[in-house]
Amino acid sequence: HLTRSALHRCFQRHGISRLPDIEGDRLKRQRFKRYPIGFFHIDIAEVQTAEDKLHLFVAIDRTSKFAVTQLVGKTDRKTAWEFLEHLLSIIPYRIHTILTDNGIQFSDQPRNRNTAWSRPMRFDLICEAQGIEHRLTKPNHPWTNGQVERMNQTIKEATVKRFHYDSHEQLRTHLNDFMAAYNFGRRLKTLSGLTPYEYICKIWTSEPERFIINPNHQTAVPNA
């Protein structure tokens, strides 16, 4: 007399809705390697308003979860290194590693690397001048940069997937408000209930040598 769905709910209620795990069935999950603050993932997403499409640069710190964004009309090598300089002007601590994909905005095509045709890119020159290691994700393995892709999705769900924007300026204003609320107001379980900004201030008290300026003087994140 029970339907399939009612029977399934009954099994779920009593914790018997699935077969027991058999030892050796699944690989043991490993923890991600812990890094000090200053390891940033950078990615690009496409967003749309009534005016036209825009491209969104997003950078997020792997450890502090502090995120920086910038809207641009097109993505090329120039806008990529300009975003890097924008990121460096905002973050109060030293960035030691940057992870990007293999797009032409960030690196030479694989066939041209380490050849007579390869030339140093402005993005890499800035990294070298700042003592930053520029890492690239593995080709055809986009999930290796999954942290920033999840942040892209979060931003889209809070903006273009939920609201209609008549102009780029409307989107830019709402995005700035959302990023300020995220960095300074959103408490994250991975940070033991602290906001990204509060976590940075906590690191400032224990590891001040990692900082360029006192983060307590930073009260807003200028995005563009």
Quick structural overview:
The chain is α/β, with parallel strands linked by helices. It contains 6 helices and 5 strands, in the order αβββαβαβααα. A 5-stranded mixed β-sheet has the order 3-2-1-4-5, sandwiched between helices.
CATH fold type:
Nucleotidyltransferase, domain 5
Query: How many strands, what sense, and barrel or not for the largest sheet?
Result: 5 strands, mixed
The CATH homologous superfamily? Ribonuclease H-like superfamily/Ribonuclease H
Stretches where pLDDT is under 50 for at least 5 consecutive residues are: none
Name of the CATH class? Alpha Beta
Mean pLDDT score, rounded? 86
Secondary-structure arrangement, i.e. CATH architecture: 2-Layer Sandwich
Strand order of the largest sheet: 3-2-1-4-5
H/E element sequence:
HEEEHEHEHHH
User: Percent helix among the residues?
Assistant: 25-40%
* Total count of helical runs of at least 4 residues: 6
Which word captures the global form? globular
What structural category do the secondary elements indicate? Answer: alpha/beta
* Cα radius of gyration in angstroms: 21 Å
State the end-to-end distance.
61 Å
| Strand percent estimate | 5-15%
| Secondary structure: number of strands | 5
Structure explained in plain terms:
With 224 residues, this protein is of the alpha/beta class. The protein has a single domain, classed as Ribonuclease H-like superfamily/Ribonuclease H (Nucleotidyltransferase, domain 5, 2-Layer Sandwich), CATH 3.30.420. Helices cover 33% and strands 15% of the residues. The protein is built from 6 helices and 5 strands. It has helices spanning 4-13, 77-90, 122-129, 146-158, 168-185, 196-206; strands at residues 39-48, 53-61, 67-72, 97-100, 133-136. The chain has a 5-stranded mixed sheet, with helices on both faces. The longest helix is centred in the C-terminal third of the chain and has 18 residues, at 168-185. The model has no long low-confidence stretch (mean pLDDT 86).
